Amino acid sequence: MQVLQGNGEIIRALRKIPTLQAFDKRDLRKILGCSQILKYGPGETITREDEPDQRIYFIVSGKVRVTRQGVEIKVLARTGDVFGEMRLLSVSARTSSVSAIDETVCLATDVAAMENLRKEDRVAFAAIYYMVMAEVLARRLKETSDELTRVREELQRLKTATGLSGTVGSA
Which residue ranges form the domains of the chain, and what is each CATH number? Predict the structure, then answer.
């Protein structure tokens, strides 16, 4: 892991994250006060399952693999994709591991550092991250609903092909 320096370069990187594009340089600098821009090489572990970590991560560039108990859950590759966001809702340890697939740059924000901000900045900071959470949770709910629909359709197809009666989801 390498920590990237240079505010101009970092602000440009933050501007690539869709959720942060609405914020001015002043607000982005405040976020940077609680954050680092980290660069990971291919195969490098970013977070480990069951270990504590106070940070939420935004992908600036690159691609990461999310695994739980060694099983791949998903691949994140879009600028602005978020992982570690459950830290905003719970103080528990990480529920999955994340590793870089190729060279990856992330904005890693220390959620606990938010407490050191002035009250008005803390409110603005919290608003940003809860907006992020709403977007992430809405996207994941849609992905889960789409997957459930696909699985039900496949199950119904298999029931029909094997001559079993009944509709999936009916009693």
Answer: 2-162 (2.60.120.10)
- Distance set, CA 141 to CA 67, 145, 168 (Å): 19, 6, 21
Contact call for residues 50 and 93 (beta carbons, < 8 A): yes
- 14 — phi, psi (to 5°)? -65, -35
Q: At what angle do helices 119-162 and 25-33 cross, to 10 degrees?
A: 80
The one-letter amino acid at 105: V
pLDDT classification of 11: cutoffs 50, 70, 90: confident
Report phi then psi at 37, rounded to 5. -100, 120
Overall pTM > 0.90:
no
